[in-house]
Write a structure and sequence with these properties.
By secondary structure, this protein is an alpha/beta fold. The chain is built from 8 helices and 15 strands. It folds into 2 domains: 151 residues, Rossmann fold (3-Layer(aba) Sandwich), CATH 3.40.50.2300; 103 residues, LytTr DNA-binding domain (OB fold (Dihydrolipoamide Acetyltransferase, E2P), Beta Barrel). The strands form 4 sheets. Strands 2-1-3-4-5 form a 5-stranded parallel β-sheet. It has a 5-stranded antiparallel β-sheet with strand order 10-9-8-12-11. It has a 3-stranded antiparallel β-sheet with strand order 13-14-15, with no helix packed on it.
Length: 269
């Protein structure tokens, strides 16, 4: 193991393979000034655990995150944590993968590092020190970890075709809302409000950010403050100056603005 910088670092690991977690755990145990604060067995476990730790003294500085996991992969973990906590609260990410295509295509531009399985002790040590340096960086050109994570998140979202679910944090718990269950969406300050099956859910994001993640064949922006699920539209009524009154299946009435009415007109053809 290479000599540590002397700055303590809190580490969490996420991997669905027991042998892989054991390997990481053993290497971390040999590293000075490292404390393992969480060990998660899959993406859903990571969401629960890291969200609970986010505002505590045990919040991890560095996250060793497997890419390929069932249900919720490493891509989804980063995206869901950003939705639930905000990018500023995310730890520095070191991706762990058996497939170099993932790392080379997207992550090395903004993640602290990636480990290609199988990796040896010196390679792990370099990854750990890069994570430590990023987490505790003070130089102006190296301290913008949130900016790096926003760039990483942009790559993640670009790599995923369309969002399949939203992660909603409420009462200290995390809930999943499938995009196909969403009727319409509107802006609420620094949040967006998802309306699904008669219930409203708040997600920390901008309406533009949400729109970029949605399937444009299914969701249409009708106003600067509203997006609708096309399949949930019950009726369109022409209004003034090229605008429309949009009646949703749940009875909600929205008025489209002229600048956003083009897609609605296309639906009438």
């Amino acid at each position: 193991m290479t000599e540590a910088s002397g700055t303590p670092v809190r580490v969490a690991i996420v991997d669905d393979e027991p042998d892989a977690r054991e390997r990481l755990r053993a290497l971390l145990a040999d590293a000075p000034d490292v404390r393992l604060v969480a060990e998660c067995v899959d993406g859903a476990d990571a969401l629960r655990t890291l969200s609970a730790l986010a505002s505590t003294p045990d919040a991890p500085d560095v996250l060793f995150l497997d890419v390929q996991m069932p249900e919720l992969d490493g891509f989804g973990v980063v995206e869901a944590l950003a939705d639930a906590l905000g990018t500023d609260a995310l730890p520095v990410v070191v991706f762990v993968t058996a497939h170099d295509a993932y790392a080379l295509r997207a992550f090395d531009v903004s993640a602290a590092d990636y480990l290609l399985k199988p990796y040896d002790r010196p390679r792990f040590a370099r990854a750990l020190e890069r994570g430590r340096a990023r987490a505790h960086a003070t130089a102006p050109d190296a301290s913008d970890a949130p900016g790096d994570l926003r760039a990483l998140l942009a790559h993640v979202r670009a790599a995923r075709r369309h969002a399949e679910r939203f992660v909603v944090r409420r009462d200290g718990r995390l809930y999943f809302v499938r995009t196909t269950d969403v009727d319409w969406i509107d802006a609420e300050g620094n949040y967006v409000r998802l309306h699904a099956a008669g219930t409203a859910h708040l997600v920390r994001d901008t309406l533009g950010g949400v729109e970029a993640r949605l399937d444009p064949e299914r969701f249409v922006r009708v106003h600067r403050s509203a997006i609708v699920n096309v399949d949930r539209i019950a009726m369109l009524e022409p209004y003034f100056h090229g605008e429309y009154v949009v009646t949703m299946r749940d009875g909600t009435k929205l008025t489209s603005s002229r600048s956003y009415s083009g897609r609605l007109r296309a639906l009438l053809k």
